[in-house]
Description:
Elements: E1 5-11, E2 14-21, E3 24-27, H1 28-32, H2 40-45, H3 47-60, E4 67-68, E5 74-75, E6 84-87, H4 92-102, E7 119-122, E8 127-128, E9 133-134, E10 143-144, E11 147-153, E12 169-176, E13 179-180, H5 199-203, E14 209-217, E15 228-233, E16 236-242, H6 250-260, E17 268-270, H7 278-281, E18 290-295, E19 299-305
Parallel strand pairs: 6-17, 8-14, 9-19
Antiparallel strand pairs: 1-2, 1-5, 2-3, 3-4, 6-7, 10-13, 11-12, 11-17, 12-14, 15-16, 15-18, 18-19
Amino acid sequence: MENYKLVTYRAAKGPRPGVVVEEEVFDVAEMTGRSSYATMLDVLNDWEAAQSLLDEVAAKAGKTKGIPLGRIKLLAPVLYPSAIFCAGANYFDHMQEMAAMLKIDPEPDPHSKGLNPWHFIKTSHTVVETQSAIPLPEYSKMVDWEAELAVVIGRPAKKVPVDKALNYAAGYTIANDLSARDCATRPQVSPTSPFRYDWVSQKNFEGACPLGPWIVPAKKIPNPQNLSIKLWVDDVLKQDSHTSRMIFSVAEQIAYLSTRITLYPGDLILTGTPSGVGMARQEFLKPGDVVRVWIEGIGTLSNTME
């Protein structure tokens, strides 16, 4: 099994899918001889066949010269996902943190009440790459960070069982679910109104979904519930947790979503954030802040706020 990562990088001819092997980048279409692999979505739409071809590319990478990784501009690994599903309240430590902030008792494990995972949606317009500058929305003074493990779907998934669900993941990447906390509700609308919530303003502003730096194939991460996850703001550690603390596992989330809508190659699932968010500390992002998210076995996603 060869070690490689999948990227989308900026080339003269536009965004191209690449394979990273030992700090060198190789064009997927050129190395596989598949001109149809012009984008990462093309590769993911042919994931069954592409996996073995990518293994072959990684195996022969040392016999040919690639582009040094440091010389290329990485883009978001998937341009652009047709759907981004984001899990809400999916870490035990985060639920306890928010309950303490609100001075209420923590909710019981949702499994004990027969509840299912809970997701909202971000649009593909929110996706930006690592190392990019993100303009903080003018309408918000409380933009928060949320480190998340992101699943990249590699096969159409419809009504899949939990024990088979991970077979539908092509790989994993890192996301930061940026959130405008002061825009979660519309202040002019009654707290009892079902029309109070504003998911667009809170979760879908420009740059609200930093993604990257690459996709690590799922076969390299056989257990996504065994990964450390950390986030720093200006080198100050804010989130330090572990994916074993998820309430609903990656497999449960894939399986549940597939009962509501067919998941397609390139779709993303952001699997929730652990404790350490700014809301609990009443600390929020400001221009110049550098946010780094690290997940074990994947790498680091870094962005600067402006």
